Amino acid sequence: MSYLKIDHVDKRFQRGAASTEVLKDVSLVIDKGEFVSIIGHSGCGKSTLLNIVAGLTPATTGGILLEGKEVNAPGPDRAVVFQNHSLLPWLTVYDNVALAVNKVFGRTRSRAERHDWIMHNLDLVQMAHARDKRPGEISGGMKQRVGIARGLAMEPKILLLDEPFGALDALTRAHLQDSVMQIHAALGNTMIMITHDVDEAVLLSDRIVMMTNGPSARIGEVLDVHLTRPRQRLELVSDRTYIAAREAVLKFLYERHRFVEAA
Ligand SMILES: Nc1ncnc2c1ncn2[C@@H]1O[C@H](COP(=O)(O)OP(=O)(O)OP(=O)(O)O)[C@@H](O)[C@H]1O
């Protein structure tokens, strides 16, 4: 049985009499512990696909199976980390994570266990020191770390990352990519990440799913990234496998599926 199965998903949005087909026959199987990136030009339907996996948007036809069970609503087994760090501004860093932990483990773990678990997850993303700060008092990168801690603390089967580093400067982005690689190595989570960044996709992923342009976007190619882990960004710069993977994605995006802006 596959761990996560995206099974012949079509998605159509209806607005009045007009209907747009955003995704056409998208199928993909993801193994437990895999890190999969989804890359494609703006508007092709990456977020729509992630939202369907999250259960936030229904597929028009086809569906999602997680460990053989159909997904048709959001659930704690699929945590989402968004680009615009969706923390509640009136709560502290600690309380933002606590909200998710109490929701998922309120009945099964004692107060002390939940406290330890919140602190453990804040430690994982190196944010324990800022536990009493509010989102307005910390940087964008720090907010994103807290968002990741909140997602991980739910112990999801799958962590869904929607351009998690898109709004960050290059250095912060690199630090966070390293943190996510370390967390993935330590915990073995299954992760699906949307990105626009070819280097980020190659650095982090076991597989890169390349989407064709919309409307009616589909999976154009899937690239296996045969790089050993742990991966060091500086060593990879001159690694042949890395360079070849990067070139394959760039050629897909800028030669075979060049984005042409609608007039
Ligand atoms: N709720 C909705 N109703 C109607 N159309 C929608 C809705 N959500 C998304 N779309 C349309 O579906 C298409 C795909 O959007 P989506 O956000 O999934 O693309 P994306 O690849 O994630 O884009 P980007 O990379 O720019 O974030 C777009 O044309 C968008 O306008």
Describe this structure as you would to a colleague.
Helix 2 (93-105) crosses helix 3 (111-124), helix 2 (93-105) runs parallel beside helix 4 (140-153) and helix 6 (198-204) packs across helix 8. This protein is 37% helix and 25% strand. The chain has helices at residues 46-54, 93-105, 111-124, 140-153, 170-187, 198-204, 233-236, 240-256; strands at 4-15, 18-30, 35-39, 61-66, 69-71, 78-81, 158-162, 190-195, 207-211, 219-224. The longest helix has 18 residues, at 170-187. The protein is globular and about 55 Å long. The protein has 263 residues and is of the alpha/beta class. Bound molecules: adenosine-5'-triphosphate (ATP). Adenosine-5'-triphosphate binds next to strand 1 and helix 1. Residues 13, 15, 22, 40, 42-48, 214 line the site of adenosine-5'-triphosphate (ATP).
